[in-house]
Specification:
The structure is a single chain. The protein has one helix and twelve strands. By secondary structure, the protein is mostly beta strands. It has two domains: 59 residues, no CATH class; 84 residues, Immunoglobulin-like. The strands form four sheets. Strands 5-12-11-8-9 form a five-stranded antiparallel beta sheet, with no helix packed on it. Strand 6 and strand 7 form a beta hairpin. The longest helix is centred in the first third of the chain and has 13 residues. It is elongated.
């Protein structure tokens, strides 16, 4: 085990490594004063290195999965948001829209669009926004209702 650790450490010390943050169900991290190594199970392999007896594969964290996450603080309220990934418009449908405000944040947490819902069906123009990840938050005057994670292509 020690020779594998030395091989991994030697390989990574010879390279300039900069890792992204990832939430993974499997994997681990190693760090000492000189190097930090993170790995996750399920990464796509892009290269394999060997010294004849030990192998190390290099991959990258998969950050471009397209999914919709919903944080549901008001399960009795129905809000439809589509499409995801977003194109040039985002559709919102909500029966009880009175006093409901929506805010769209970019992946840095900066507010990019904020407005009130004025009817059951609302079209939000997102064609000017750059590609990336966004968070759409719905709230009334007293609390959050739902938060959607979206992708803009």
């Amino acid at each position: 085990m020690l020779s594998k650790s030395i091989f991994f450490l030697t390989l990574f010390l010879a390279m300039s490594v900069s890792a992204q943050s990832v939430i993974s169900t499997q994997g681990d991290s190693y760090s000492n004063g000189n190097v930090s190594i993170d790995y996750t199970i399920g990464e796509i392999i892009i290269a394999t290195e060997t010294d004849g007896s030990n192998d190390v594969t290099q991959g990258f964290h998969q950050t471009n999965w397209k999914f919709l996450e919903v944080l549901d603080y008001a399960p009795e309220m129905s809000i439809e948001v589509y499409p995801n990934p977003m194109g040039s418009n985002l559709n919102v449908k909500m029966e009880d829209f009175t006093n409901v405000q929506f805010t769209l944040y970019n992946n840095e947490g900066k507010e990019v669009i904020c407005n009130n819902l004025h009817e059951k069906s609302t079209l939000i123009k997102v064609n000017e926004l750059p590609h990336g990840s966004y968070t759409l938050r719905f709230r009334n005057e007293s609390s959050d209702l739902k938060i959607f994670k979206l992708i803009k292509q």
